[in-house]
Design goal:
alpha+beta; Spore Coat Polysaccharide Biosynthesis Protein SpsA, Chain A; 2 domains; about 20% strand
Length: about 260
Amino acid sequence: MKDTTIDNSNIIFLGENKGIATAQNVGIDYCLEQDADIIVFFDQDSVISERFIEKLIAPILNENENIVAPTFVDAEKGFIYPIVSVSKFGLRTKIIPSKNSASFYTNTAISSGTAVKTSVFNIVGKMLDNLFIDYVDTEWCLRCHHAGIKVLILPDNQMIHSIGDKSFNVLGFTVPVHSAYRRYYRVRNSFVMLRLKHIPIFLGIREVTFSIIHQLLLVITQKGKRKEYIKYGAIGLLHGIKGSKGKLEYIKKTGK
């Protein structure tokens, strides 16, 4: 399919699934070519209110903020996703703001619904293509944090969003369920995060540990798909230890 324009929206076709990092980078490049001042990212399953973007970009236009993010309401169960702040040692603090809470700063955010001043990309660079999917936004946000750039959270600007195809609870924790193929990248990329210098060491260790525990929970609970979760979890673990990056099909083809 060729690139096209519909209702003043330019649609760029990549021809194949190149991963969210590459897709976002193509969009970033296009916006920079158009001399855009602000880029707002969205996933296909995000739902916003009428004045969402107006409220989102106001701190960038009026207060010279660099990155602004909303809070997220789960599309299926209606709870507010915690905002995560990471200390310099890699310890995580979860913040669950109410709609009436004051704005505050953090150093990680989900990319969907986030507004970024385009000059930030000149400072920290774009997304890591070789992650393909998973940890793309976390890695980029922590790269920004390493460069002294904060993320402003707007609790009164909420967006409906889904993480995973569904979820289940274990000991009070919400566990998202993604496809077995998607879980390959989650397991593998946790090892990539562990090796990056700007990722706090304890966060890297935590992500590797929790990605494996999460995978085991899916193997136990997802009846009928256990073999798939075992297969892709094992491949993700092997490739993570090996240091492989990029699209899984490319790794299989090249052996890298």
